[in-house]
Amino acid sequence: MNNSSCSSVDEPPDVVGLRHLTYAIIMPVILAFGMLFNTFSLVAAARSNLNSVALSYLFAIILSNLSLMILAVPWLMHRASQSDQCYSHATAFYHANIEPILLNWLATFSTYVLLCMSIERFVSVIQPSLFHRIHVLSRAVLALATSLCMCLIFHLPTYLKWSITCPDCWSVTIEKDVTSTTLWWIYIYTSQTMARFAPCAALVLLNIITIFKYRRIINKRSRMTTNAVSASQTNTPSNSTNNLSIVKKKIVLSASSQDEKRQLKLLSGLVCLVAVCIVPAGVAALLPQPDGNEHYVFGFVVEALELFHHSVISLVICMCNNDIHRRVRKMITCNSVSF
């Protein structure tokens, strides 16, 4: 959440209208669905049979995204307000000095948890023998604690970007004496590289390699099982019991193949979400603060995309797990029948 499209006193009417459309209509809808999806994911994960390591990662990313949705409510109200909005000193201080740190901290932590999960998935596919050595709870807790501290350190200096002024009432403004210095831009490039560009590049690369390797494994296993079923069908005398057994094997293979194809599609969607929604936010943070309105539209789109990413990513990850996917389908089916 870069606040790259912060309000200006001299906003033209079309920018004011676009601001209202984005922050008063579009983003609240995304936020509402985000709260619903993350709460639903939390319930589904709590009912799953996952081991403690997988659950620790899953709960971390769901809770970080859900907390982000909750903290985004006052942020949206602030972003949708008029440029000359008056606040109390405490409210202005929160919007200027605390809110940017909290929002960016949670967003970056969510990305790093996703990176940890992608590393484990990559190792499980590429080096299965090594997977059991890294897939332990102590390593997961250490990775989460380290990521949490690192992400906070990345964004602590944003405390200096905003200031509160009181000519007639308390308001939030950009501290241009700070943001125009070379040291500040060194920090911006470094923090965005560590918070967005580097983890996103690693996420995309790891998941693409995992997808291609997993696809080869699936195709190889499918050929082997198909040949085995064909051989048993050829060598076994024809009777109703044997035919029924062969049909059952084919049904199981078909269901397994559908689950694996679904996982591949979801992993591909995860890669697209990261590339399309997170990387532009880093680019927006590197743009100089405009004196005019040239970056407003880009800022609106970027912030909407980033909020959308954190709204749906937890549900996408949950759907990648077969156990959670089956439980979610069962929950939806039961609710539909009872309704």
Automatic annotation (TrEMBL):
What Pfam families does the database record attribute to this sequence?
A: 7tm_1
Q: Which family does it belong to?
A: Belongs to the G-protein coupled receptor 1 family.
Q: What GO terms are given for molecular function?
A: G protein-coupled receptor activity
Q: Which domain of life is it from?
A: Eukaryota
Q: Name one GO cellular component term.
A: membrane
Q: Which UniProt keywords apply?
A: Membrane, Transmembrane, Transmembrane helix
Residue ranges crossing the lipid bilayer per the database entry: none
What is the protein's species of origin?
Daphnia magna
- Its predominant location is membrane
Entries under PROSITE patterns matching the protein: G_PROTEIN_RECEP_F1_1 (PS00237), G_PROTEIN_RECEP_F1_2 (PS50262)
Please list the coiled coil stretches: none
Q: What is this protein called?
A: Uncharacterized protein
Q: Which Gene3D superfamilies match?
A: Rhodopsin 7-helix transmembrane proteins
List the subcellular locations: Membrane
Query: According to the UniProt entry, where is the signal peptide?
Result: none
